Amino acid sequence: MARGFIVKRGEAYRIGVELPPDPTTGKRQRHWETFHGTKKEADKRLTELQGFVDRGRLGANSKMILADFLDLWLEQHAETKAAKTSLRYHQIVQHQLKPHLGRVRLDLLTPAVISGLDKKLRAQNLAPQTRQHAYRVLHTALNYALTLRLIVTHPMDGLQAPSVPKKEMQVFDVAEARRFLDTCRTAQLQRWTDADRLKWLAFFSVALNTGMRVSELRGLRWQDVDYEASELRVRQNALRIPKVGWVRKSTKTSGSVRSISIDATLLDMLKRHQAEVVNLRVLSPKFDEYDLVFPSEAGTPLEDRRIHYVFKHLCELAGVKKIRPYDLRHCCATLLLSAGVNPKVVQERLGHASVTLTLQTYSHVLPNIQKDAAQTLGKLLG
């Protein structure tokens, strides 16, 4: 068993254990920590630390502060994630974690210190989901610190992440979806040309018909449009990363890489739209570089703020409920499930990892499906 020490210091105890020598310098190493409690409890903690050393779970004390460790974690771990996930990790670290906990040393992080994080995040008037994401990102990062033996135990064990009230999903019904697309055909926004109307009609028609994510729509290339097979092949997404620019990465998971069948009407719309895009290629080499189905006026991917601006004004003109562009994905799934389409087909269309995720996400549709199934079976059995 590793050699240990207990030294009385005022009202507390200093507990130390011998560690294996530094593999590069050969120098002796020790782990020290301050313990508040009784002598018997200090003895118990020493035994626990000695067990950690014997099982290889305890390394030398780290003087690293959390901010520096989070930078290390982002560099070595977060960059391997999908573009949107990586961006979200960076945002949470910079805006929620570093300002409140960044100067705390890793070895001094305790449940008591971290438990005060939610109060500070509430003071920023952050949404419950954002606060929950901050907790989960910190928990994931500290798992990595545990793996590197920079900490002995996980300081978030036993802490509950902020809960998120479940919101009712907002989607278009069939009548609203038709009214919205009819408005796209005739709308006049910011001196739109016929080509502008066709582009946005095609963009939102593809969104409603395929359930593709907004980032996937931005990254869709003409080489991904198979006119002969009547399919769109989802291979990449496009996301703007601060201080980096546009990043095009493969889709989130292997299930997200998929082929989606589309009908003849949508194919014809895309052909007409492609003819208009070809005419714009002389304006910038970016059109050829990105080869996008839905490019901006400069040939680069569409900006989020532009998509939201156009969508918001089209919803107002159509007189439909206010939802987000991303919610068109939910509209697609809800309309298909309500029409009796097999959930497995919907899962494949959306690129969900499993049909279970699809059923959980759209559970609000299931009661109606059950009623329809009961009526259908009743008719079959007479």
Describe the structure in your own words:
The chain is built from 16 helices and 8 strands. The chain is 51% helix and 11% strand. Strand 6 (236-241) and strand 7 form a beta hairpin. With 382 residues, it is mainly α. The strands form 3 sheets. It has a 3-stranded antiparallel sheet, covered by helices on one side.
Tags for this model:
single chain; 382 residues; mainly alpha; 3-stranded antiparallel sheet; 16 helices; 8 strands
Please write out the topology.
Elements: E1 4-9, E2 12-19, E3 29-35, H1 39-54, H2 66-76, H3 83-101, H4 111-115, H5 117-123, H6 128-147, H7 174-186, H8 194-210, H9 214-219, E4 225-226, E5 231-234, E6 236-241, E7 245-250, E8 258-261, H10 264-280, H11 286-290, H12 304-318, H13 327-338, H14 343-350, H15 355-361, H16 366-381
Helix pairs in contact: 2-3, 3-6, 7-8, 7-12, 8-10, 8-13, 13-14, 14-15
Oligomer classification: single chain
Strand order of the main beta sheet, please? 1-2-3
Report the total helices.
16
Helical percentage: 40-55%
Task: Report the end-to-end length measured between terminal Cα atoms.
Answer: 77 Å
User: Strand-residue fraction?
Assistant: 5-15%
| Most strands sheet | 3 strands, antiparallel
User: What low-confidence regions span 5 or more consecutive residues with pLDDT below 50?
Assistant: none
Summarize the entry for a quick read.
It contains 16 helices and 8 strands. The chain is mostly helical and 382 residues long. A hairpin with a 2-residue loop joins strand 1 and strand 2 (12-19).
